[in-house]
Amino acid sequence: MIELFYHLFLYAIIDTERGAEVDELRKIMGLGNGYKVVKIEEGSDGKVKAKYIHVETKSSKCKCPKCGKYTKSVHDRLKSVKLKYVKAFEQVTYVMLSKKRFICHKCNYKFTEPVTIQGESKSISNKVEQKILIDLRNYNLSLKYIAEENNVSDNTIRNILKESMANYPEHVINLPRVISFDEFKADTKKGKYAFVLNDPIHKKVLDILPNRKKNT
User: Fold this and answer.
1) CB burial class (10 A; 0-12, 13-18, 19+) of residue 192?
2) pTM exceeds 0.70
């Protein structure tokens, strides 16, 4: 897959008219049919080399968020938005996303089309956010390392972590001052003994794991 990705990047850089190769690149990047890779450029981001993948939306109509009617009238195309993307061959990569602004002639409302590649008001792509969440599950990685690896700030990592834990129980986000743990015989498919974590002061069971292994 990496070798294929490499050759597709070369094809795209040399000749963006190679429709099949560029379309395959779009699929590998995880972009849906509503997007089109226009061109790929190499440049710099400060002192490091970077790849810039120019992407356009292909939507021909859009639903008005004000009145709910569909419109095909494109008012204009906005200036490309620079989104941080996952690295390509250890090179910093950006998606330059060009979005259209539609106008609804029923209510005369102008609006920007919604996209799936980024969250609302965010400067990173969803793919980067997904990778950050995967990295956060690795307790051997520091927040600083994850930030540097994904070309984002430490605060961005903290904000993503807070958002992902918004619906977590309070005892998961903030452990009590005193905790106790023990094992008990469970005979589950994952192990003979299970692991239980308690809050002895308030007499609450915080969590039960199916086995007592470190990687659980």
Assistant:
1) exposed
2) no
Q: Which residues contact 44 (CB under 8 A, 6 or more apart)?
A: 50
Provide long-range contacts, Cβ within 8 A and 24+ apart, for 157-161.
157/132, 160/129, 160/132, 160/133, 160/136, 161/136
Could you count the other beta carbons within 10 Å of the beta carbon of residue 157?
20
HEC assignment per residue over the chain: CHHHHHHHHHHHHHCCCCHHHHHHHHHHCCCCCCEEEEEEEEEEECCEEEEEEEEEECCCCEECCCCCCEECCEEEECCCEEEEEEEECCEEEEEEEECEEEEECCCCEEEECCCCCECCCCCEEHHHHHHHHHHHCCCCCCHHHHHHHCCCCHHHHHHHHHHHCCCCCHHHHCCCCCCEEEEEEEEECCEEEEEEEEECCCCEEEEEECCCCCCC
Least Cα distance to 65 among 97, 105, 112 occurs for 112
**CA atoms of 168 and 161, how far apart (whole Å):** 11
CA-nearest of 54, 64, 52 to 114 is 64
User: Cα angle at 199 between 193 and 203, to 5 degrees?
Assistant: 100
State pLDDT tens for residues 90-145.
788 999 999 999 999 999 999 999 998 888 878 899 999 999 999 998 878 899 99
Short-list 195, 198, 201, CA closest to 210:
195
